[in-house]
Design goal:
The chain is α/β, with parallel strands linked by helices. It has two domains: about 210 residues, 3-Layer(bba) Sandwich (FAD/NAD(P)-binding domain), CATH 3.50.50; about 160 residues, D-Amino Acid Oxidase, subunit A, domain 2 (D-Amino Acid Oxidase, Chain A, domain 2, 2-Layer Sandwich), CATH 3.30.9. The chain is about 35% helix and about 30% strand. Strands 6, 7, 14, 15, 16, 17, 18, 19 and 22 form a nine-stranded mixed β-sheet that branches. A six-stranded mixed β-sheet has the order 9-3-2-13-21-20. Helix 8 packs antiparallel against helix 9.
């Protein structure tokens, strides 16, 4: 017996942050006749944690996101920000310093005429809000838990076979399935990979003093250390997210320390800007690599988020870059739909890719240069970066350009 193909307009592979965001953005689009797009999401995890289906069980990462000002504004247009803003900690000041050296720079929200330069939120909080928003979209269907077994490309459509033998057909597929993307592999799209020879240790920590909505970026001999403000239940303002980038060997050493020893090492490296570390939460670590697909689009397919580009967290731009992919793709598709044209013509997808290429190059170039400059112990570079921090701090035009880019504009 041959299974009947289920036809939709768009199939999204991967129901993580990028997949859910893509589905929500496209769910608001309609054809020239006013019919909403039909969207299928294929996700390996079960989407519900319990029988009443109120809470998502997707494996959203325990890490936090630094949302740019522009990203927060886009989430407002999708009616998601309203559900999460109370759990997002505003960044009113960015404090950059180089351990043991004189270079420092400060960025203030009021100098750039915004209420916040960005926000910090736990990935799970945003993920759950996206899933709940999608549950209100009748034109979005979940195929979960399920995975893609095969993809067949045709001139006018794409056929997808799932692990459970279900067959789906669509005009367009979006690969939102992460840095090890199966969609990318099925399309034989090569990637550029580069190991930064660094490991990131992440944890929530509680300090003696409140963070006062200041994000700290501290450059150390082993790599950058970020302390980001978080919201907490008692509104004390003492809870922060730690992203400590260091060498794999040093990361192994730090990971094996008891909480007291880890807190002591953190105080010695970060300093006492917020007093002593009072509590260290569960720690996790992961290697840092650049993964960039050589092609962002394929026949009737677009790679989104980490499937397209996985970058270093030094500037907190990874998710924001993927969000702008979604925003641009939705805008391009809206124009195609208004003209009753094919949403997945290769010419159209190529124009999308060309539009996004500059942003990709700029952000990847920025993160790569920051990693090279601030994870280096050579004296000339140390002197140069400290001079650069001073120039950045006092040159308003340079500061504005840098801040605007990190704010997503």
């Amino acid at each position: 017996m041959v299974n009947k193909k289920q036809q939709v307009d768009v199939i999204i592979i991967g129901g993580g942050l990028s997949g859910c965001l893509s589905a929500l953005a496209l769910s608001t689009l309609t054809t020239s006749s006013g019919t909403p797009l039909t969207i299928a999401i294929v996700e390996a995890s079960d989407i519900h944690a319990n029988s009443n289906q109120e809470t998502s069980a997707l494996h959203f990462d325990s890490r936090v996101l630094a949302l740019s000002h522009g990203s927060a504004n886009y989430l407002k247009t999708l009616n998601v920000w309203q559900a999460i803003h109370s759990k997002a900690a505003a960044i009113n000041t960015i404090h950059i310093s180089d351990q043991g050296n004189y270079g420092k720079a400060r960025m203030y929200a009021h100098e750039h005429h915004v209420n916040a330069l960005g926000y910090v939120i736990e990935m799970a909080t945003l993920g759950d809000a996206l899933v709940q928003a999608l549950q209100k979209a009748p034109n979005v269907s979940w195929f979960a838990p399920n995975q893609v077994a095969n993809i067949d490309w045709h001139s006018t459509h794409v056929d997808i076979q799932l692990d459970d033998q279900q067959l789906l057909q669509a005009a367009l597929i979006l690969g939102c399935d992460g840095s090890q993307s199966k969609c990318r592999q099925f399309a034989n799209i090569d990637v550029v990979t580069k190991s930064y020879q660094q490991t990131a240790i992440i944890a929530n920590v509680r300090f003696e003093k409140p963070h006062q909505h200041i994000a700290y970026e501290r450059f150390t001999e082993h790599g950058p250390l970020a302390i980001l403000p978080l919201t907490d239940q008692d509104n004390s303002g003492q809870k922060c997210s730690l992203v400590w980038t260091t060498t794999p060997e040093h990361a192994d050493y730090l990971s094996q320390l008891p909480n007291e020893g880890f807190a002591e090492q953190l105080n010695q490296t970060f300093g006492y800007w917020l007093g002593v570390v009072e509590k260290v939460g569960k720690r996790a670590s992961y290697p840092l690599d650049l993964v960039k697909a050589n092609e962002q689009v394929f026949h009737r397919m677009v790679l989104i988020g980490n499937a397209s580009h996985t970058i270093h967290p030094i500037a907190g731009q990874g998710f924001n870059l993927g969000l702008r992919d979604v925003s641009e793709l939705a805008a391009v598709m809206a124009k195609q739909l208004s003209k009753n044209e094919d949403i997945a013509s290769f010419a159209q997808l190529s124009r999308y890719a060309a539009t996004r290429a500059k942003d990709h190059q700029q952000i990847i170039g920025l993160t790569d240069s920051l990693v090279a400059l601030f994870s280096n112990k050579h004296t000339p570079l140390i002197v140069g970066r400290n001079v650069g921090l001073k120039v950045l701090n006092y040159c308003q035009s340079l500061k504005s350009s840098f801040v605007n880019k990190t704010m997503g504009y």
